[in-house]
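Could you join me in thinking about how sequence relates to backbone shape in a protein? Label the sequence line and the structure token line clearly, so we can match residues to local backbone shapes. Once you have written the record down, we can walk along the chain together.
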Amino acid sequence: MANLLWIQAVCCGGETVSLLNSDHPNLQAAMRTLDVTVLWHRYLYDHGRGKMEQVLDECAAGKLHVDLLVVEGAMYSRAPQAATWASGGPYTDWVRAICSMADYAVAVGTCASFGGIMATGRNPMGATGLQYCRSEPGGLLGADYRSRAGLPVVNVPGCPAHPDWIIGTLWALRSGRLREADLDRFNRPRVYYGKLAHHACPRNEYYEFKASATAYSQQGCLFENLGCKGTLCESDCNERLWLTRTGSCTRGGFPCLSCTSPEFPDGFAPFFETAKLGDIPTSLPLDVPKAWYVGISGLSKLACPERLRRNAVSFKPVLIE
């Protein structure tokens, strides 16, 4: 049986909520499969060793072995006096020390991975991810950090991350099936982040013909006018559905905000309208050459079937005889 330690840093708790809502497998089954003892988690704590500070001190000193360290939330690198736990010590000191002792370190959520929402704007507190600050390697631990098993911090971003991404990554590490070659350029597992949220979007037929919605609740593609970043978001959100396996952002009529990306959220503003140069969106898709997109988009609109043209701006299906 392995030891799992889950530290919540500067965060909203969304990754914990996502994990608690795991449905297939449910959380109890997942914990049994992982075969772990939870040394500490605010809601999953099951190891009676006393207060949180005692557990963290023992882990930092190597007295209590940590097989899997999970960090949720960003680090405040420039404000240690504001980033303390009850014992009065900066939590960044604990995190650094425990990361040096852990077999594997996992950053869950975009804040822990890249800084996320906590690192927006001028970022006066110096919020950062464990091994990245936005898209730049470094973060709290430095670009050269490796865990005792030889891996960098494994990033599982999302706002929040899908419970499958969290559980699947922990299982792959626990079973020795995740190697550095299985990680992408931002140390995300390729199996979850090797696709675009755009893939399998139910609005893709509209996208192909540039039949675009002009208002929310219409049926057309959300990319051209309403700020959808699904063509930039590296995740399998529209294949690995949410909420009892039925939903995703675009299935609910909401634009993808590319929340798994290192530059989220600042790099994807404005959220609810599409920035353009002339008629061409500035945030062009990752999976097609930019020149191709510019050249083909006009032809696609000319070839758009009347069925799609009318339904794109309709709030309910329009039957075309």
About this structure: The first helix runs from residue 14 to 20. The mean pLDDT is 91. Residues 134 and 262 are 5 Å apart (CA to CA).
